[in-house]
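Study this protein:
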Amino acid sequence: MKVPNLKVHVEPMFHILNMRTRFPFQYGIASLTALPHLIVRVKIDVEGHGVSTGLGAEGLPPKWFTKNPDTRFEEDIPDFFDVIKNAAKLATDAPCTSFFRIWQHVYTKQAEWAKKRKLAPLLANLGVSLIERAILDALCRSLGVPIHKVLQDNLTGIDLSAIRPELAGMEPRHVLMQSPLKSINVRHTIGLGDPLSASDVPHDKKLNDGLPHTLEECIHAYGLSYFKIKVRGDRDADMERLRNIAGIFNSCGIEKPKFTLDGNEQFSTVDGFREFYETCMEDPQIHGLLHGLLLIEQPLHRDIALKHSLHSWKDRPPLIIDESDGALNSLPKALDMGYNGTSHKNCKGIVKGLANAAMLKKQQIEDPEKNLLLTGEDLANVGPIALNQDLAIMAAFGISHVERNGHHYFRGLSMFPGELSEELALPDLYRIHEDGFPTLDIRDGRLNLSQVNKAPFGTEHLLDTAQFTPLAEWSAESLA
């Protein structure tokens, strides 16, 4: 099958579904209790295949895309919508050409526009990624081919050398699995305020909503063995929490827990973080826990992370960037500074993720002694669109464990109308809770991706977005 040309010929439509958490999700400087979940609907005309519709979606969390403590979330929201609407306009203005050429047009013009507006690259790319995902969904549906085959066979026309010249000769198939993973380990987020055991939950804060709440309950309910532990940059408080988490793992009988440590941009210098890490290594209880450490994510604030070399710290653990990965040149800079890699999140871009994966593979081949990493991280993703699409890409990349937290901080898909439950619950990935709503079906700490991989792009169901609030009619006050 040749690379088809396509045209985004109808202005994308935007709708919002408000979502409220079961309990606050504390990360970095923010505490998530509610957010607007934006759904993008596009129509494309695919040469030789006719008109097709596709969806993209993302929850818009406070203080992740722009970690500015001096503004309120309500003040940040207009920029969210501006970057998404501008990317949509750029996509409709693009000529009829391959998916990749449309992506190039949108990415380049969006970057120029955002620079003039002094908008952060991470935020600007959110707009690009949402339109990118919706177009890919429509393309998969039009061709009748699942996303991993569309990317593997490069029906998108992606030219990695046009993104980074040093990637000449590399193609998407060189970094993707020949067949996507059939299942994936859930790496459970332990947020800064998450209760560890029943004794941490006051009587008036007990949820009683049919889903596990404490870390202990989640371990027993889901059979977890992979975790992501967040720290706040307060040495004594962080060390005490790490000791308590180690105690929970031990009491729950997890002999070899594997985990990543998320620094949440809470450290101001490399030396400051190094001191914290080495102090943890000297603590007997935490030292034992650190045997299962896989890597450390973004300890330094994004504004300084790529300005300070790690090379003087010879015996450092593996470190990756996350929030610092805002532009196409972010990962090469990070590797030069001594980082081991980056995270993949669909909100940072699928084409960009492919370029990152290719860069890591190329350098790993050139220097086999390196330990280069591409991880899968979450942004409180919720199905049936954002989460499913994220899992489809993780499976295609072959990422064996991924941070998952949307099912924990939100009550499954209970925020959607009840009559949609059977349609939203993709078999194997979801189960219908006894209270009637779909929720992730995590067994022995894993998710079954068989149906995710068979679907066009994560899901068969083309959700009717007209039942939700049009963006033009939505207001931040509705979150209260």
